[in-house]
Every structure is written in C-alpha cells, then in structure tokens.
Amino acid sequence: MTKSNLKFLWHLVPVLLLSTSVLAAAAPPKKPAKGDKTPPVKTVPADPSEGGIQPPDGKWLVDSQGHQYFVEKLSKQSLGFLRLPNGKIRTVWGIEIDLVKEDADFFYYKVYRAPRPAAAAAAISPEELKKIEASYQVDTPESRRLRFTPFSTGLPNRGQWRNGFDLADMNGDGHLDIVHSPARKEPGPPVIFLGDGKGGWRRWTEAKYPALPYDYGDLAVGDFNGDGHPDIALGVHLRGLLAMVGDGKGGFTEAYKGLDFVLPGQGRQPGYSSRTIAVTDWNHDGRPDILAVGEGPRMNAMSRDRAQMNGNTEAYGVVVYLNQPDGTWLRKDQGTSSREIFADSIAVGDFNGDHRKDFATGSSVLGRRSLVNYGRADGGWDTADVAVARPSALVRSVDAVDLDGDGLDDLVLGYLSFENATWRAGIDVLYAHKDGTWTRRGVAEVDKRLEITALAHGDLDGDGKTDLVALTSTGETWIFLATARAGSPARRRPASPPTPAAARDIMSAWPTSTGTAGTRSWPTSPARARRSTRRTAAPPGAGSRPGTRLRPRAGIEPGTSKRKTPLDSPG
Predict the structure, then answer these.
(1) pTM exceeding 0.85
(2) What gap in Å lies between CA 349 and CA 265, rounded to an integer?
(3) pLDDT per residue over 502-522, tens digit each?
(4) How far apart are CA 165 and CA 192, in angstroms?
(5) What is the maximal distance between C-alpha atoms in the chain?
(6) Contacts of 64 (CB under 8 A, 6+ apart)
(7) Nearest CA among 79, 219, 197, 154 for reference residue 567
(8) What is the C-alpha to C-alpha distance for residues 404 and 6, in angstroms, rounded to an integer?
(9) Could you tell me if residue 131 is left (phi over 0), alpha (psi between -120 and 50 degrees) or otherwise beta?
(10) Using one digit for the tens of pLDDT, what is the confidence trace for 105-151?
(11) What angle do CA 414, 377, 244 make, to 5 degrees?
C-alpha cells in the first residue's frame, strides 16, 4: 500500500466510525437484473463550510437508502483484508468499508458523509451558554502540603508499562510488592518487583510462569484457591483472560479453565478480551471472582508472529467469571454485542447501601452515561444512566469510595468532554444517594484536550481523611487532599486501624520521571481511611517509574493540568 493511501485511510477513520450506525442499518444494495438500465445516481452539492472530508468534485452521491457518499480507491498492494459475508471488506486495522466495485489493483469504496449535529444544537442562547460555562467552574483551593522523594530504586525508568498493576506481598516477607502485566511491545509473563519497604525493588527473576502467549493489559491479585498465597489474574490484550495460582515461593501454575482465552493453533477465532479487570467476591460465596470490561473494536492481530485476519474483532460489555470450587470459572454476562459499553476502567463499590457489590465503568463512547451497574441478589446487575455525568464526554477513569461518610460509595470520574465546541478535561465527584440520584461536584477542570488516565484514593498525608490521586495523559500527577468543609458539621466515623506504612507511602500511580505533581485541597466530611493498595498505569508510550513516597512540605507548585485502570475498592 502506498503512503498516500495509508495516510488518506487513516484520516478517514473518524468518518468511518461515525458512520457505523448508518452502515449497520443499511441492507446491501441489490444487483440490478441483467438487461436493466441503471438509473442515474442522484447527487447533492457539498457544503465546504461544514468541515471534514469533502468529495473532490464538490458533489455527494446519494444511494438508494439516502446515504450520501463519494467513491475513493484503496490499493490492494500489500493490504491485509477480510471479505465479510455482508459484502464489505475489513482491513487489518479493523475498519469495515462498503465496496462499490473492485479490479485487480484497487478496491473502490464509499466514503460516507459524516453525520451532522441537529440544527437546534447550534442555537445556544446566552443564558444556556453561561450555564454550560458555570458547570465547569471549580473552587478547589491550592495546597502546598506535600513533596515527593524517590522511592523507586531498582524499578525500570523506560517502557510502556500499561494498563494496570496491583500491590501485594507476593513472597510473604511482610513488604508490599508490585505485580505488573508485561510491558507493551515486550511480550512475556507478568513482572513482579519485590519491595524491601525502604524504596528498594528488585525484579523477581526466580519466579516461574506457565508458557503462554502473554501480552500487555491489566492485572489483579487475589487468593483464588484459598491456600493463603496470592494468585494472579490477567486481562490480555486481544487474547482474553488468564488466571494462575501461586505457591508463595515464585511458582505459578495455570488455572484459567472457563475463562475466555485463545491459544495459537486452537483453530478458532478470538472471543472476549479485556484490558480492564477487577477481582472481587461478586456472589458472596467467599471466593474471589473476576469482573472484566470489553476492550471494544480490535485489530485483527491474533498470531504470535504476525497479523491475521478474522471476522471477530470486537469485545463489548461486562463479563463476570465466577470462581468455582473445583478451580474452574463460570462465565456470566448480560450481553456482549456492539450495543454494549466498552472501556478502560472499572471500579467496584456499594452505591445504594444494599450491601451488595455494584460496579461502575468508564466509557469509550462519547456521551454514553450508562456507567453504573447495581448488583442484584440473583448475581445479575441493573445498568443505570448517570444523569449528572457530563454530556458529550468520554469517561477514561473511574474510582469508587465513600468521600462524605454517609455509608454509600461515591463515584469519581475522569472525563474528556466536547461541549459547546470546546474540549475540556477534568475530574468530577458524584455523591451517591440511596434513591439512585447523584450530586455532582467538579474538583478539577482544564480547557484542553487531554485524558485523566487513572484515578485512585488513599490517605496520603496521614490525617485520617480520604485523598484522591489522578494521572494525566501528559504525564502529570494531580493530588486532592481532603479537608473538613468550612461551616459544615463534621460527621465522624469510627477510625479504622492505622494504614500500614508501605501501603500509605507507595502512591498508587506510576508518574513519569518528567511529570509534575499538583496538590489541591477539597472539602469533605471526614471519612474512614482506606488502604491505597490500588493499581493504575502509566500513560501510553511514557517512560514510567513506579513507587513514589509522599512527605509533607510547603512550596510545591500544582501541575498544569491517557488512559487507565482504576480497580476494585479495598475494604
């Protein structure tokens, strides 16, 4: 394929994706009977003022379903593709195209006119505009109470360490260790960095893992077989999910029967895969289960060595894998079609106070608000829209924690919104109420296009209140320190046991070595401190250094204001 063709197709990705709903509804055009005269194709003039890709001759063609398009050609030279039953072509990048015709050298395909917003959306009154602007205002004051000192001797300072990690004492020495999925573009088993509690780490090279086709993704730790030793679950990009049980001495054996995972040479297409998982006892039977969120549209690479074409390149919806007494897993889902959500974040909590597990996900679909899922007694869940979530927003990260001390977990969202023709990024706290409603409070906002890639919580300054930590796609670390709300009575709760120093001091984030840290204070009622043994991940492509120790100090400047994994809410 020529560079010009590749560049043009890459620019077409947004148009093709925006046209997905239109294409799905359109039946393949019928071929005219032999001898029939083909009627002239209707055309409409293009409108250059609307932006986007326009037909070269200034005219949109109109097909029999009323869809407007022009025809572009794509070279077949060195192009990997798959012919689908509906007559379309899927490229190696996972993009489907509608063919008009083809010859020995080229595909001739339809480039559809991007859907245009309703005319009413452009007519915003001055009052509505002020209301939109006011909704993004935040009043979080600046704080200067923290400083960072190195706590990362022996950890890597380069590589794409994504999407998630966990903290656990893997070798029983009383110190927390970092358990990470393999780095992107560095295939191999999970990586464990043993900690000494003093800021020193070493890679556990003695650990032995099953010979499996690992890849980057998410990771969570739990005791799956009840032997007292930590085990590992993996969400592997493109391939599926894995679980392995440990012996506490570095030996791991596979235990993924019943999980969706594809091995090379199995002779079947890939199924469900995820880069976002959480380990929690979903059905309250005393055994930890696995929750996974589909990673959405995927490329076709499934071979160990090269890209392969296949028809199943999507993974949507949430799947729960229930841990069975015999060591196998039982899958439970409520739909995994392309109508379901896909995301790179999940958080478990109790949002309605019924003492059953609920979960919230992010959303990689602009404007989708079906983020919260309330657990039912039968093991299913009811999905609910969050009306106060930002309109026209992507939710890249979520966290669940009780921030106001009312016994209900609240929801923290890291969003990227496009409202009133302006990109904004920020963090909202949504306070939960028992009737299923939410109260939104913005704690951070910047008028720029970046992503809040990770969220986590813990008591960072040792004052007994829950603080928040966020990472951005530009490599910055934001910290929000909880304070008592001025003029409001503080509702105190029984204090929990002191958080272990290792858990408190290791920040649950992997800031880049060039990132800056910003601290801000935000008011809340005193809430019970929770261990910050939570995992996040570095921005894609960033050289990352895990493990940062926090110490109080004055004088730190707040950071100016992509992606990833909040997790299960620890008790």
Answers:
(1) no
(2) 40
(3) 222 223 333 332 333 455 554
(4) 10
(5) 85
(6) 29
(7) 219
(8) 52
(9) alpha
(10) 999 999 999 876 544 455 788 999 999 999 999 989 888 888 889 99
(11) 65
